[in-house]
Amino acid sequence: MVCTKQVYICHDTITGIFSAIYDAWKESRDTEAGIALRGCLMPQLFCEYREVDEKEQKSIAVERLIKNNLGYNAYWDLYHALLSDGPEKADAVYQTILAARKVKDSRKIMEHLSNPHVAKVFELSRKVANEAHLFTEFIRFRELDNGVLLSEITPKGRVLTCIADHFTNRFPLENWMVYDKTHKVFLVHKAGMNWILVEGEELDQTEAEKVSTAELEYERLWKGFCKSIAIKERENLACQRNHLPIHFRQDMTEFR
Amino acid sequence: MAEVIQEQISLYDKLQILSDAAKYDVACTSSGVDRQGDGTGMGNCSKAGICHSFSSDGRCISLLKILFTNECIFDCKYCVNRSSNDVVRTSFTPDEICTLTMEFYRRNYIEGLFLSSGVLKSPNYTMELIYAALYKLRHECNFQGYIHVKAIPGADQELVKRVGFLADRMSVNLELPTAESLKLLAPHKTRKNILAPMRLVQQKMQDNRQEIVLYRNAPRFVPAGQSTQMIIGATPESDYQILNVAEALYKKFELKRVFYSAFVAVNEDSALPAKTGEGPPLLREHRLYQADWLLRYYRFEAKELLDENNPNFNIFLDPKCDWALKHLEYFPVEVNKADYNTLLRVPGIGYKSASRIVKARKMGTLQFEDLKKMGVVLKRALYFLTCSGKMMYRTKIEEDYILRNLLNTKEKLPDSVTGMTFKQLSLFDDVNFREAQIQTIVG
Question: Which domain does A229 fall in, by range?
Fold first, then answer.
């Protein structure tokens, strides 16, 4: 008899992957199964592929399952791993959840770094968290003529939800917006309200270029400041590059 | 006269002049205080601090670092803004400072404001202006981000206190390590005038801690602590003297940080070292920072690292390796038994890996592979450690032998010490370079 592996195919979103985990957990947690992302699928022999019916309810159920059984800290790592750009992330998270069934204390699953799936989740989660931290540093807003602050970024992972609380707390009375150009997602904050994520829209480039009159002057002041604050006798571009990789500079005011 | 010139200077030029004049101040950290925004204004602070950009010298830009004014009645020999220098003089108004800070902050350019100043008219007058600017920023603009402010030596106690309630960190620059040097290079400043506000801030912080215990919502006084900085290489002090001063500051004044600033020759003056074309003494500055860490995190004392006969750091070895080589009688230590303090003194073991070792060895006997995973730098530590009584390789416990091997492993200097090769070391780096040392290394 040929043993077939069941592979669940879903979109690269939290809802999609959590729905796939829901189906996989429900139907085949005791047999061999995996999760693959649509668009980065490598068909293998002896596998049966199935499209996942993606639903918000399934996603909520999985979130609860993880939080209740593995604890909030493990959920934090799993969630952040899913925001990364690695194609193997969904499977690593699913296998980690399965591995947690077998260890004595499921809440300590993230300490089992000798398990390759757990190690993968740990690596991805750290990558995303580090990238998100760098964006709290390097994001630059510009003021549009309607007073909205707009920032465009080109992150590798889906970092918007990681930085949202930071900026909401920092600029509670401002209307601001961060546009993730890689994944085409907006993070939108209206003054005095909480933030929301908007998907399926594209940035109107002509509107985005209409900056306020004061904006150009502040950009000029800032660029001037960045130059005058450097000590010529200590110039060290390698050190600057190590701390502020070239990749980030495309969206930063002082390097444009 | 000065006022006439001021009117014609644009905000852009003012910012150029007053940031250029502030750039020699080292501290740009926005760390030490964790504060969430209360939703009625703008800003918050994070404990570890946030850098926002890096300038072409590789230093981080975290705060809007500016002088209130570069007019100054003092004539400190090393300073660009000394009264005898002929430079364009200008001042910000409190409004301009508020606008710049708020507009830069809301674009996420900066983490807050670093406000220093030349002495305009008198210390008190200047401190009043600083107070006015900070008051406006905190209470009218409702700015809740980070503020680092300089206390002007000689200003009234009451003013220093009032400013301290508006700022997160306060610093008084010690400028030079000894009172004699200060007299020589900063004739208008005295050691007493510098230490008095430092003591005041310390006492006020202690009082404030009591107040907060009693009344949870009492206003915070300089919650991120105070720091200071010294110029290195402008005067002939030895590393030993400098380190002793730093130690005294940590112990007696409870400073958060002492910063060291490699002397950059901006003025020609007979009292200053001549311009050499060799650049600032960056390696010496680096060694002082390394030793500073040993004082703050590794429970070393200045007198253990250096003494009167050996008053300067070894340019080839970091201070910890240097200490270990001179005290081989303590080594090797047994990883599975040695107490935390002993582990801290082993080259290649940091304070984090030391505490990991102490925790992990409760679970089982540690081997060299385990140490590697915990972040111990074995290529340095292997000469000083045993695991279950065995050393990693067959090594001799001899100063010359270990020194030769350590030098072969090449210390990784940070990028901040630019492409430093032995040839570029200047006399400032090791004033009393020991001949015997050269022979050990060459031979």
Answer: 139-255
Report pLDDT digits (tens) over B288-301.
Answer: 999 999 999 999 99
Let me know whether B330 and B282 are in one domain: no
User: What is the DSSP secondary structure assignment for residue A111, as one 8-state letter?
Assistant: G
Distances (CA, A) of B244 to B178, B271, B361: 11, 24, 36
C-beta separation of A60 from A19 below 8 A: no
Residue-level length of chain A: 256
Indicate if B152 and B259 belong to the same structural domain.
yes
Domain boundaries, position B395: 319-410
Q: Residue B160 has what pLDDT?
A: 94
Q: Nearest CA of chain A to the CA of B27: how many Å? A: 13
Q: Does B254 touch chain A (CB under 8 A)?
A: no
Chain B, residues 72-131, CB within 8 A of chain A, namely 100, 103-104, 106-109
Residue B56 belongs to some domain of the structure: yes
Co-location of B327 and B404 in the same domain? yes
Q: Which residue has the tokens 């970024």?
A: A153
By C-alpha distance, which of A139, A173, A144 is closest to A250? A139
Nearest-neighbour CA in chain A from B344: distance (Å): 26
Q: Please report the pLDDT score of residue A2 as a whole number.
A: 56
Q: Which residues pair with B113 in a beta bridge?
A: B64, B147
- Residue B117 and residue B22 in contact, taking contact as beta carbons nearer than 8 Å: no
The whole-angstrom distance between A34's CA and the closest CA on chain B is 31
pTM: 0.87
Note the pLDDT tens digit of each residue in B182-192: 999 999 889 99
Strands B169-171 and B146-150: parallel
How far from the centroid of its chain's Cα atoms is residue A193's Cα? 22
pLDDT tops 50 at residue A76: yes
Residue A16 pLDDT exceeds 60: yes
B394 shares its domain with B271:
no
